[in-house]
Amino acid sequence: MPVPPRARGEAHVRAELSMVTRKISLPVQQFIYAEQASGLSLLIGTVVALVWVNSPWDHVYRQLWETVLTIDLNVFQISMDAHHWVNEGLMVLFFFLMGLEIKRELVHGQLSNWRQAALPAIAALGGMILPILIYLVFTWNSEGARGWGIPMATDIAFALGLLALLGSRIPRELKIFLIAFAIVDDIGGVLVIALFYTGELSLGAIGVALALIVFWLGLRQIEIQNRGIYAFIAILFWLAVLKSGIHPTIAGVIIGLLTPTHRYYQYGEFTYYAGRLVKEAQEAIQQGEHERTSMLLGQLEELTRYTEESVERLERLIRPWVSYCVLPIFALANAGIVLSLEGFEKALESSVALGILVALIVGKYVGILGSSWLAIRLKWAALPPHVSWSHMSGVALLGGIGFTVALFITSLAFEATPLVSEAKIAIFIASIAAGLLGYFFLFLYAPRPPLQEQELDDKQKKTVWAVILSWLCARK
Questions:
Q1: At what angle do helices 91-107 and 172-196 cross, to 10 degrees?
Q2: Which of 129, 135, 275, 434 is the right S-S partner for 359, CB 3.0 to 4.6 Å?
């Protein structure tokens, strides 16, 4: 995603005061919000895990993630190994960000209008249903059938990162389509985790969680705006969901969906009140009233904060932490599998691995492209401007990158069984194959956007005229 305007504005103010900010912070900020960098951090975590677990120090890797960490506050106790703390604690932030993105798209984005949402929604449904059916064909009446949710998810970080590498070859509308498609895909993944990959339910804990949601909504109704209170309720809600038997990452999605999308002060209101405060501050400065000036500036600062939507602010603050901390640690904890020729041969003989491979590489492609074609054929939707069927084919191939959520569902479906390593190997192979196929297909066959072609033609014309003028000057 591009650098959010608020973050860009804050950085420019700091740049006026510091040469270090101008020379270092601004370029770093551009890097932090780049799609390529987000996918790169996830890739680095994966590579480190694979190298570590296949090195002489593999026992250290296993000891690290088997280390038990306990929080005991007398009222309640949580005791989990480090691997579960990552998957059930740290990953809550990833799913919270997912909830914020879903809320934003439903209210302001592609999913807020049915005509705009129809194509990505139908494409996502086709890209979930067909892979599930293909996987079940391979694993029916076996222990592996429990992993039917693995091939349904697309890893948006890797897919968007690869699209970003293509630069101007790809129309902006295709990126928007992929984001909307991924949001619907995420909704499907969240529902599957919540409904089908939960433990034994505790009605008491579920009751507490529901009471906390009602309390949260009540605070919103009376317009309590203290973010610390909401953060405290969110932690209690996560604890209640953890104890309920429902996977605790669902708490992150729910909190994200409960986050308000409206501004407390619209821009017009802000300029009116801010103008009055600035005028009063000028008078206070002239009269030497430093304490009153500080108070007025404090009001102005608070007023400025409330012109930003809570969803926008939280997404801006949390995204870098999720991209460069949460996801790499998740990859480090979950991508550690022993790579050997024997292991690959065993995996490829497994119905689970074959099901995942065919479902992600073939099922995703046929499901996304076929359902999109059917929706347009039936006139339920239309292709976005500047997007061709070649573009759609490339995105359908990229849809087979099922890394983060696929690994996550693998850990839920096959925990502490030999099927985990077989599934992970298949996810790696399928994701790499889908990524390479999608990237090179778009690079070789996707037409450039017309606007880009026009800009290139203009540049070429200017170059030609410059050469002609130079030649004429030389003749004179």
A1: 120
A2: 135
**From CA 247, how far away is CA 371, in angstroms rounded?**
31
User: In this structure, are 351 and 214 located in the same domain?
Assistant: yes
Q: How far apart are CA 395 and CA 154, in angstroms?
A: 11
Q: How many CB atoms are located within 10 Å of the residue 266 CB?
A: 11
107 in any annotated domain:
yes
- Chain Cα centroid distance, residue 319: 8
Q: Are residues 246 and 276 in the same domain?
A: no
CA angle 428, 431, 436 (to 5 degrees): 125
Considering only CA atoms, which of 456, 474, 457, 359 is closest in space to residue 409?
A: 359
Number of domains in the chain: 2
CATH code at position 117: 1.20.1530.10
Identity of residue 245:
G
Query: In which domain, by residue range, is 136 found?
Result: 58-262+325-475
How does pLDDT run across 386-412, given as a tens digit for each residue?
A: 888 999 999 999 999 988 888 888 888
Residues 74 and 177 in one domain: yes
For residue 392, being part of any structural domain is answered with yes
77 in Cβ contact with 70 (< 8 Å): yes
What confidence tens digit (pLDDT) does each residue in 179-233 have? 888 888 888 888 888 888 877 778 888 899 999 999 999 988 887 877 889 899 9
- CA gap 246, 193 in Å, rounded: 9
Give which of 208, 179, 98, 211 is closest to 395, Cα–Cα. Answer: 179
State how far the alpha carbon of 414 is from the alpha carbons of 119, 150, 185, 188, 407, in Å.
Answer: 33, 11, 22, 20, 10
Q: Note whether 105 and 210 are same-domain residues.
A: yes
